[in-house]
Amino acid sequence: MSRQSEADLPGDAVLPGLLSESLHAELVAFRRDLHMHPELGNQEFRTTAAIKARLEKAGLKPRVLATGTGLVCDIGAEPGADLGGTPILAMRADIDGLPIPDTKTECSYRSTVPDRAHACGHDVHTTVVLGTGLVLAQLHEKGLLPRPVRLIFQPAEEVLPGGAADVIASGALEGVGRIIAVHCDPRVDVGRIGLRPGPITSACDRLEIALDGPGGHTARPHLTTDLVTAAARVATDVPALVARRVDTRSGLAITWGRIESGHAPNVIPQHAELSGTVRCLDIDAWRLAPDVLHAAIDEIATLHRAKSEINYVRGVPPVVNDAEVTELLRDAMAARRGIESIEGTEQSLGGEDFSWYLEHVPGALARLGVRTPGERTVRDLHQGDFDADERAITVGVELFTAAALLDAVQ
Hints:
Helix content is 31%, strand content 23%. It is built from eight helices and 16 strands. The strands form four sheets. The chain has an eight-stranded mixed sheet with strand order 1-2-4-3-5-16-6-15, with helices on one face. A four-stranded antiparallel sheet has the order 10-12-8-13, covered by helices on one side. The chain has a two-stranded antiparallel ribbon with strand order 7-14.
């Protein structure tokens, strides 16, 4: 694909700034309202209703998912219409919050819900896709939207294995040729995006282990199954074993978040538990991970005469950006903001259920800069003080609108 200039975008002459001052102000207010009322995965009823009402006000026909939260909305095509093989470009936003308190002290729009916060930027993602939909709806009314676009507002991204599965099961990818998304990045300045073809996030699964055996007195460990020692050896030896049974370049890592056993210093317990996460940078190694881990855990447990019960909870595979769709986002951003607004980005160990869509259709995730230039403090994701420079909303809308127009003329 060749680099596009701003004048090359179909319909851009009609909306040279894409967002009017009034629409920008409305979107900021919409984002702040979501930020004040975060809802957890599969409980996003208020959020869903707010999105639905605004899309309907624009003359669109959003469809709420059968689960009751989340919705899908087509622009440029009636629901269920025969598109004659024309592939749809889908844009996905996640709408759920996190179960952590909002700790921002000087913020007029901090969360009003105890122990709930939009600390991952999903309120920004949602507002970007909503704003893009409103702009594209105007273009469609003027006959300037060459190809249909589908908006996907997905619930439960923060709940393993992610709400994407319900969206896909609902048929939301029928007719979709490509899919794009953004994720807030507090390490990138507002006005910029980070792009990377290939893997951009990690796989993330959950591992839970229960160990059992006859306990006893600490004076006679030889007559017992020493479960504390067994749990300690599982915690230290399993990661080492796995590291020698998969390609080290895969980045497969096991990190424990909880180890629990026993109640008294002179009693060997009969039960121990460990739980943690499994992260992996390579999709092939991720597919092998459950079998490799089961074998390693059983081997260590058997060595210590403990019975093991393993619950391996599949989370999400890595997000693997399609090269052509990544290039589409690159061209779109260059057309609106210039090539200097784009930077490369590293693969992170964070998980993202956008990856499930990419098991079905090609797509790409961009990192959306939300840091105010010159700000020294990085307000990291999943922290109670996280916030975003709201100018990122305009950048995201410009990126997605330009991508929709460029996708149609490839």
